[in-house]
Write a structure and sequence with these properties.
By secondary structure, the protein is an alpha/beta fold. It folds into 2 domains: 38 residues, no CATH class; 190 residues, Vaccinia Virus protein VP39 (Rossmann fold, 3-Layer(aba) Sandwich), CATH 3.40.50.150. It is globular, with a radius of gyration of 17 Å.
């Protein structure tokens, strides 16, 4: 395998073939770690601004200390790392449906893995976030119906573009209402989207939560030499 391109792992999954690879981006002179699902790029270490913003914006809505946080979707670990950078966070559960992604962090194949694994506040949960989040038992099997200060989600491409069709119900009023039970009073729901703000979805959030808004996250795309905008939705429980 060329030193400029290396496939680190390949795993078949129920939603397609998952590939972890490392390559050299010659136009920028940097090494890139990326995860692909089939031929689709899921995550890249080249673009992490909005994943980090999801954590910063979500926690920025909260006050106090010893906060209990959930991150839905482990990915390359940038949202989880940004959560743990806050001294106000007391515990973090990271829910990930793909066992391979957890393995890559636990074995150190992914650069952020050791930092997450060695932080005693952080625990990985193997499971379907959407099923757990809309169940009565909730997201922590050790403490059924446990509530959290913040639940931050980066899994689907947007509220209208899903990795699996089964996820669609979560974004509807009934799914969001079931999910809201797992937030503490004044708890925050943060959601990453690859698309521009969707007024219809923001209004749907406002029907379930006491406050809701969409924050644009704009960053430079060096491969296209232009700015790119994604969205972080924020909603707060009454």
């Amino acid at each position: 395998m060329s030193k400029y391109f290396e496939e680190l792992d390949y795993r078949p999954t129920p939603i397609g073939a998952l590939t972890l690879r490392r390559r050299r981006e010659f136009s920028l002179g940097v090494e890139v770690i990326e995860i692909k699902l089939g031929e689709e790029h899921l995550m890249s270490s080249l673009f992490t601004a909005s994943e980090i913003a999801l954590a910063k914006l979500g926690l920025g809505e909260l006050h106090g200390h010893d906060l209990d946080v959930v991150v839905g979707g482990l990915g390359l670990g940038y949202t989880a790392q940004a959560v743990l950078e806050s001294d106000a966070v007391g515990s973090l559960l990271v829910v990930e449906a793909l066992e391979a992604v957890i393995d890559w962090h636990e074995t150190g194949l992914l650069p952020l893995g050791p930092g997450l694994v060695n932080d005693t506040r952080c625990a990985f949960v193997l499971g379907d976030f959407f099923k757990l989040a809309t169940s009565s038992a909730g997201l922590d099997a050790k403490t059924p119906a446990r509530q959290f200060d913040a639940i931050l989600v980066d899994i689907d491409h947007s509220p209208e573009f899903f990795l699996s069709p089964e996820n669609a119900a979560f974004y509807q009023p009934e799914g969001l209402s079931k999910f809201a039970r797992h937030l503490k009073p004044r708890g925050v729901f943060g959601l990453w989207s690859n698309e521009l703000p969707d007024e219809t979805f923001t209004a749907r959030l406002a029907d379930v939560f006491s406050e809701a808004r969409a924050e644009r996250v704009t960053f430079d795309n060096p491969l296209q030499d232009r700015e790119f905008t994604q969205t972080v939705y924020l909603a707060q429980k009454a």
